[in-house]
Structure formats: structure tokens, C-alpha cells
Amino acid sequence: MEKLQTVLDLQLKQHRALGYGLVSLLTAGGERLFSAAVFQCPCSAAWNLPYGLVFLLVPALALFLLGYVLNARTWRLLTGCCARSSRSRARGCGAGLRGAVVCAQLGASAAVAPLTWVAVALLGGAFYECAAAGSAPLARRLCRGRAPACEAQLPLAPCLPAQGPDAQGLLRELKAQSQVLGWILIALVIIFLLIFTSVSRCLSPVSFLQLKFWKIYLEQEQQILKAQATEHAMELAKENVKCFFECLHPEECNTPSMKDWQQISSLYTFNPKEQYYSMLHKYVNRKEKTHSIISKEGDAVIPVLGFVDTPGININTAAEL
């Protein structure tokens, strides 16, 4: 039991890194399956290039969009935004900038799976070989100094690897180009991730240990919020059903207003003059009940604090969609 508890604690603490790792493994496995079982290069001068690019880029685009769909911050940003009054939008002129920053952060998270797909596909080489074999400019460059029929035979090379030494040499060169591009992409992603993480941590307004405390607080707040919401919803449902069947008038049951829900559901912004660990924390400590906590002078979106918007009442996202 102690070992199981240790594994569970590790999963809770490192759920983000483990999630990215699982997504990358599933994406790599899916690419290998597509390459082996589905992909068949048409070996046509007209179709090689679009066919290879479709398999290389379209699944990556689909995974990128799916990354947005499955991210809780996406729906925290979008839910109810079209129903807000024009006055609220005008008053919060900085909200557009904050939304753009959050969208950029969402894009970085959503790019994990598509970049994995493209990198694994380039290392495999099948998609690139097919696409490059149908590219006329690349064919002219590859066939420079070779037999006159090289350009005409290049589109057929992926389907006839044993056609001759020239075809095999062209395929080896195309695969080498693909693998070099794959490793360059992997190196660039790692360098960018290292720089982004280092800069965001360097610009963090709080210390390392406070960040750890912050994450612990959010986990506890989420658990308690879910438990209290479940209990409150159950009491309200019981009262309404009872009154329906017994034709009674329900007793008064205080629930948060639409404005209250909107405020605690809005995107978190950090203000150095105040120390709040979530929008709920900020809401209960507001000075006046009519005071809005959504936008205030000095508020800013801090990349390293992006984890604040992720927790919520933990309900299956797929079921909601």
C-alpha cells in the first residue's frame, strides 16, 4: 500500500509532465501505425507531394486543434464571453491583451502532440520521401549529375526501392534529409522550451517554495469546491423535487448569483499589491460585495502562474462536450 501511495503522490505532483509524456508516446505510436498500415505513396508525379504533405501536416493540425479543445483554460476563456455586455468589454480594454497572452500559452501547450507527430514522421522518413519525390525543384537538384531519366524515375522511387543503384541512392538521400530535419526540429523545440521555462521562472513574482505552496493550495481548493458544490447541488435538487411532488413552496436556498459565478470563473491576473492564490480567494476577500474582481489596474497575466486557471470543478470534459 505504501508503494501504491507513493506512485499516486508522484502522479498528483507530476501530472502535467506525465500527461505531456503520455500524449507524446500515444502520438508517436499513432504515427508509426499510420505509416505502416495506412500510408501508401501513390508514386505519381502529380500526387506524391500533396499526399505526403497531407499525412505529414493534416494530422498535426488536427492534434493541435484537439489540444485546444481538451484544455480547461480554453473553455474558461470562451464560456460566456459572447454574452457579456459591450460596456464590460469596453471597461476591460486590457482583457483582449490578457486573452491574447492566454491563447499563446494555450497554443504552446497544444503544440506538444503535433510537434511530436511531425518529428517522429520526419525521423521515419516515409512521408517526406513521398512528398519530396513529387517535388519538381527538389528533383532537379537531386538529379543534377545523374542519368537523364532520373527526374522521370524519382516519383517512382518510393515504390520501387530495388529498381537500381540510382533509385536506392536517391531514397537514402531523401531519408537522410528527413531525419536531419527531424532532429533539427527536436533540438529547436528543446531549446525553445528551455529558454521559455528559464525566462518565465526568472520573471516569476514569487519564490520557488511559494509556487509549490500555491499549487498545493489550488489542489485543496479544487477538492473542497467539488465536495461543497456536490453537497449544495444535492440539497437544492432534493428541495425542488420534494416541493414538486408535495406542491409546496421551496424554502429559501442561497446560491451564488450569475455575476458571482462569472467573477470566480474569469481568468486569473496577478497583482503585486495583493496576494491571492485564485479568483475564488480574490472574490471572498473583496472589500465590497458590489466590487468587481475581474479587472483592476496593475493586474497582469504571468506565464509561470498559468496553472492557476487550469483547476476547476473536476468533471469529465468529454462528457461536457
Question: What does it look like?
Answer:
With 321 residues, this protein is mainly alpha-helical. The protein is built from 15 helices and no strands. The protein has helices at residues 2-13, 15-38, 48-69, 72-78, 86-91, 95-110, 112-124, 126-133, 136-142, 150-153, 165-202, 208-246, 258-265, 279-284, 317-320. The chain is elongated, with a radius of gyration of 27 Å.
Please, how many helices? 15
How much beta, percentage-wise?
Answer: under 5%
Shape: elongated
**Based on DSSP secondary structure assignment, what is the total number of beta strands?**
0
| Strand-pairing-aware structural class | mainly alpha
**Helicity range of the residues?**
55-70%
Keywords: Ion channel, Ion transport, Membrane, Transmembrane, Transmembrane helix, Transport
Membrane topology: Multi-pass membrane protein
GO molecular function: voltage-gated channel activity
Pfam family, one: Ca_hom_mod
Pick out its properties.
disordered N terminus, disordered C terminus, 321 residues, mainly alpha, single chain, transmembrane helix
Secondary-structure map:
Elements (H helix, E strand, L loop, with lengths): L1 H12 L1 H24 L9 H22 L2 H7 L7 H6 L3 H16 L1 H13 L1 H8 L2 H7 L7 H4 L11 H38 L5 H39 L11 H8 L13 H6 L32 H4 L1
Helix pairs in contact: 2-7, 3-6, 3-7, 3-8, 7-11, 8-11
